[in-house]
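Quick one: structure tokens for this chain, please?
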Amino acid sequence: MSRPNVLVIDDEPGIVLLCERLLTAAGYDVAAFNDPPKALEYLKNAQVDLLLVDIRMPGMSGLDVIDSVKSSNSDMAVLVMTGFGTVETAIEVLHKGVDGLILKPFERESLLNAVERAIDEYQKKQDVARLQALQPLFALTESLISETDPTSLIDLILTVLSRQMNCPNVAIYRVRRKGEIELVNGRGKLVSLDGENPIRLANERGTPVWSGPQSQLESGSASALDLAGVASMMVVPTGLVNTHPVIYVARDADQQPFRMADFETFLVLARQCAVAYENAHLYDELRRYIKKLEDSQTALVQAEKLATAGRLTASIAHEINNPLQSVRNCLHLATRGDISDEMREKYIDLTKQELDRLMSTVQRMLDFYRTSAEFRPVQVLDLVEHVLDLMGQQLRERDIRVTTSWPASLPAVMAISNQVEQVFINIILNAFDAMPEGGDLSISITQKKKVIEILFTDSGPGVPDEMRESIFEPFISSKEGGTGLGLSVSYDIITAHGGRLDLLRSQGAGACFRVSLPIKE
């Protein structure tokens, strides 16, 4: 820990030498002057912890010295020496905000105790002032952290910096990977980034830079302040990994320069702002990543729908071709001239029935492929029956016998109907592909507490043991030429519905998939 620095000013050489000798022996770094102007000139470029000054001095009194020190915003404790210990003197120096008073002549212990008390008293004042300054900063933390939009947060940060630091010139800079510095946003007079400047200096050092009483800047950085038209500024590089923000504030020439207390306050505020900026940046990246995942998921679902459409083509062709053939035959017969009006009417009625059947089939297909993202109360029984109607012809042609078991009624579930239908179709098509020579497919629906469970059990060869753990992962398929997306997409759909898709151990050799969907509250 560095030793306190003491500046002694007294017009009596004997007192100056005495104070210098006693304080140096006690471990203080001492600078002693008989001439007050020379002492003030020394103070411009020195860091002093305690000013020990005589009140009565020719030319410039101790009170004048104190006024000059206060006006220059130098932060230090002040201990006054006087040989005239009156009440008026004590009141006068207290009004100046001094931290102690010692009467001449004094002994060694009296001087050392007075110096120690003055430094301690000043430190207590600084601690109280610092706490009072930090309290509103802590209150700002919630508003800064709660704003996650980067653009809005930057405006908020600039407003907070300008108000709390009482300066019209504020900015946020960002360091790119190659060390290039760019302005994110700013207000008022900003420092040029060309050549040597305080922003680059702070970033290269990795430490804060400030100009004010007892501060030092390289000549190039100091001239940059003159070019910007500001008299005092502070820059804090935060060193955060993702955004690398550098915070800048500056006061105009007609304002008081920044003091050490301002600098300490700014360090806390700048880091709060930087952390909020970093969080907003991470939130924004997370939002974009989630949006990308959602878009990919939507594209994956649509791609799987197209793949499913290809596998359903044969069934669709039968469903549409049969009523079209009937319509053609009925129209041909109804236009013959050798039939009675009664028969013609009958053929026209049959034509209408087949057209209704055809329209119903097309509408079912449109309902399945129409993109929807709205959760609504739906009946699982209706969805299963719809899928079986759609795939019935295809299953019958392969000699797959379907048996069903479910109660007469069930509670509704909140679902996107065409997505859940796609899951059912994917599972049934897996069973269809697993039984090329025909077989049995059992579908049962039960209610268990707050969920609806749908079991699909086939009599195919089942899922190999080495694939059971990864069956729901993308591009995992036991079928030759399979994409491995059907069950993966189905798993994601059911999970998004708050349910579960599981592969169970069946009693036979086939596969058994269970779909669980929560009942609508």
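The first strand starts at residue 5 and ends at 9.
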